[in-house]
Amino acid sequence: MKEISELKFPDDRGYTDDHEWAKKTGDGVRIGISDYAQDQLGDVVFVELPDVGSSFAKGEEFGTVESVKAVSELYMPIGGEVTAVNESLADQPERVNTDPYESGWMIEVKASDPSELDALKSKAEYLEMLKG
């Protein structure tokens, strides 16, 4: 596992206590897991994601990530309806490890309450939490 200083945390998204991130993209919000989360999990071998059209409230479980070490639940950083799923993760789940913020994104949603984005941690707040 890497030191926190070796991990990447882009400024352009919000983070949760459960290590998911959310980023506004046009009309939607893209969601994935942080570099810290993928590093803790180890080699990701399977990602289970919901169907397009599914709706979830903030904090609800929307899927799972399976690594060689463990299975971890994925939780919604904001509420919304799933408008897109990263289908490439079915064949290439390792993208979550190699590029968790770009090619390793998981779902896109139409936010039910866009103001929920404002409640997410900034990069600085997330780093403070990780350093404990």
UniProtKB/TrEMBL annotation:
InterPro entries, per database record: 2-oxoA_DH_lipoyl-BS (IPR003016), Biotin_lipoyl (IPR000089), GCV_H (IPR002930), GCV_H/Fam206 (IPR033753), GCV_H_sub (IPR017453), Single_hybrid_motif (IPR011053)
Positions of modified residues (N6-lipoyllysine): 69
Cofactor binding notes: Binds 1 lipoyl cofactor covalently.
Pfam families in the cross-refs: GCV_H
User: Which cofactors, if any, are listed as required?
Assistant: (R)-lipoate
Residue ranges occupied by any Lipoyl-binding domain in the UniProt entry: 28-110
Q: What does this protein do?
A: The glycine cleavage system catalyzes the degradation of glycine. The H protein shuttles the methylamine group of glycine from the P protein to the T protein.
The record's family statement is: Belongs to the GcvH family.
State the protein's name: Glycine cleavage system H protein
Gene encoding this chain? Answer: gcvH
